[in-house]
Write a structure and sequence with these properties.
The complex is a heterodimer of chains A (238) and B (294). Chain A has helices spanning 2-36, 45-48, 54-62, 65-71, 76-108, 120-130, 132-160, 165-188, 204-234. With 238 residues, chain A is mostly helical. Chain A has one domain (2-234). The longest helix of chain A has 35 residues, at 2-36. With 294 residues, chain B is an alpha/beta fold. Chain B is 34% helix and 29% strand. Chain B has a six-stranded mixed β-sheet, sandwiched between helices. Chain B has a four-stranded antiparallel β-sheet with strand order 2-1-4-5. In chain B, α4 packs antiparallel against α5 (132-145). In chain B, 41% of the residues are buried. The mean pLDDT of chain B is 90. The chains are: A mainly alpha (238), B alpha/beta (294).
């Protein structure tokens, strides 16, 4: 565990000088916008978490980190595992930050200082402040999608090589588009019954429980991806 | 004498290259020059010691520990300097220290910064902007800060200017003053080995050609020169890297084969550089003969 924490700290310190400025800028911009116009805007901050993940492999390749990994007193599998937990943690902490901003935005109700309080637009703003359920749905949904995407890309990139990353993205998107197209065609011609997903919770507390469950599932998936990747890479030489 | 590093029967095959039965040992308190032409297997051997390359056969012991099963314990006590920097170039020395210190139980930040000052390295400049000599010193400072008992250097002096090379060699000489440490120093700049090494291992085509003390090596080989017709036929077979030219020949010879040599032939002690050159010539000659035979 100590090894994994050390490698995560190493990754964070590697990305920090390049990422921190962009992160602070994004948090400030989207934080202010969410306080004034809609708490749901805070969810966009999730996209900034990628600045803590994307540069890592490029830096590692450019600076010969494989040599460093070879001399550090750390098990190689733990170096790989740590990267996946790091990806989860970066997204999770961003999600927590967004949740805090959303809470502050809802309690501060800064939209009240805006002019034209009776306009139609302001009505929409007020509604968005009242609709906590949709905000939470967006928060957990974006977190789930992005964290899953990054963990998946990390696994594919490490196993099949970064040079194939673009190909992998295209193939994955192609398969998803094909499945969606197939479903839409089949349902349009009444060849398959309309699939009804189980209803999402209507209460805020229900949505929070769903979010906690989503976080737990994504954490387990990240661990799983990490284990698969670590086992594959352990057979290769540094 | 206790060995700090022991390699026995190391074998490792790649598609186009193989290490064959590599064996040598380095006693505590000494510097070993690990020499050989490019592609002779020096880096592969070092990668095997670091467990970065999976070995096909043999055994490597560092501090008496197995380099594969005890790799973590070995790396805690091992410092490595590669030919190029292995750190994030956008970070400065302080940030690098923060990154590396949690990995080593014996990391001493005071020692690290005192070495940084001693080596005149700026602690607020990106390490990517450092000169090659400065990068080498930084890697040595890292090795010294976790109290490495064995430092392995892979071609550290290639590309360094003479002043930086001299400084690096001085640092290694000082490091070895504590007789419980060791240095394995891979290079093809043999002048560096002549200057500081106590032991020499010569690797050629993936095999150990010589391993032993530097003094023994220089006593064991000589370069012989003269007219080709003065070479006794019995001696001709013993010449290594025989090279005939218009006015005569030169070749490497074991000193014990010099007994009874004709006075018309001149000979002098061979330098490590000359030994490497003649080994390569011999190899080329053998390949040439094999091709002709085919």
């Amino acid at each position: 565990m100590r090894d994994i924490l050390n490698v995560m700290r190493f990754d964070f310190l590697t990305a920090k000088p390049l990422a921190i400025g962009g992160m602070i800028f994004t948090v400030l911009i989207f934080g202010i916008l969410s306080m004034l116009f809609s708490p749901i805007i805070a969810v966009y901050i999730t996209f900034s978490s990628m600045v803590f993940v994307i540069p890592l492999q490029g830096i590692a390749d450019k600076n010969g980190f494989n040599k460093l990994y070879g001399i550090l007193p750390v098990k190689r599998k733990n170096i790989t595992r740590a990267r996946f937990i790091y990806i989860f943690l970066v997204h999770f902490l961003t999600e927590l930050l967004e949740a805090v901003i959303i809470c502050i935005a809802k309690f501060a109700e800064l939209y009240k200082i805006l002019p034209n309080q009776n306009s139609e637009t302001m009505q929409m703003v007020k509604n968005s402040f009242a609709d906590t359920r949709t905000t939470l749905l967006a928060l957990f949904g974006i977190f789930t999608l992005l964290c899953l995407l990054f963990a998946f890309m990390e696994m594919m990139g490490q196993i099949f090589g970064r040079e194939n990353e673009f190909k992998i993205i295209m193939i994955t998107l192609g398969i998803l588009a094909l499945i969606a197209f197939g479903f839409s065609v089949l349902s349009e011609h009444d060849l398959i019954p309309v699939v009804k997903l189980p209803g999402l919770p209507y209460t805020v507390s229900g949505m929070v429980k769903l979010g906690i469950a989503a976080n737990a599932v994504i954490f387990v998936i990240c661990l799983l991806f990490g284990e698969i990747t670590a086992n594959k890479l352990a057979r290769r030489e540094l | 004498m206790e060995n700090i590093l022991e390699i026995n029967g190391l074998c490792k095959s790649y598609e186009d290259f193989a290490l064959k039965d590599v064996s040598f040992s380095l006693p505590k308190g000494f510097i070993m020059g690990f020499v050989g032409e490019n592609g002779s297997g020096k880096t592969t051997t070092i990668r095997a010691i670091l467990n970065m390359a999976k070995i096909d056969g043999g055994k490597i012991s560092v501090f008496g520990l197995d380099s594969v099963t005890d790799t973590i314990a070995v790396k805690e006590r091992l410092g490595v300097v590669f030919d190029s920097l292995y750190l994030a170039e956008h970070l400065n020395v302080r940030q690098i220290e923060q990154q590396l210190k949690p990995f080593y139980r014996d990391w001493d930040s005071g020692e690290f910064f005192s070495r940084i000052r001693e080596f005149d390295l700026p602690d607020n400049r990106k390490v990517g902007d450092f000169s090659k000599g400065m990068k080498m010193k930084l890697m040595i400072a890292i090795a010294l800060s976790h109290k490495a008992e064995l430092i392995i250097l892979d071609e550290p002096t290639s590309g360094l200017d003479p002043v930086a090379r001299d400084e690096l060699l001085d640092i290694l000489a000082e490091y070895i003053e504590d007789e419980n440490r060791g240095v394995l120093f891979s290079t093809h700049i043999t002048a560096d080995v002549e200057r500081i090494a106590d032991y020499v291992t010569i690797l050629h085509n993936g095999r150990v050609w010589y391993t032993g003390t530097k003094d023994e090596l220089s006593e064991s080989y000589a370069v012989v020169k003269g007219a080709e017709e003065d070479i006794p036929s019995a001696l001709k077979e013993k010449l290594i890297g025989f090279h005939a030219y218009r006015n005569g020949f030169d070749a490497l010879i074991r000193t014990y084969d010099l007994a009874g040599i004709s006075s018309s032939l001149e000979y002098e002690k061979a330098s490590i550089d000359e030994i490497l050159v003649y080994i390569a010539k011999e190899d080329k000659h053998e390949r040439h003969s094999e091709r002709n035979a085919v």
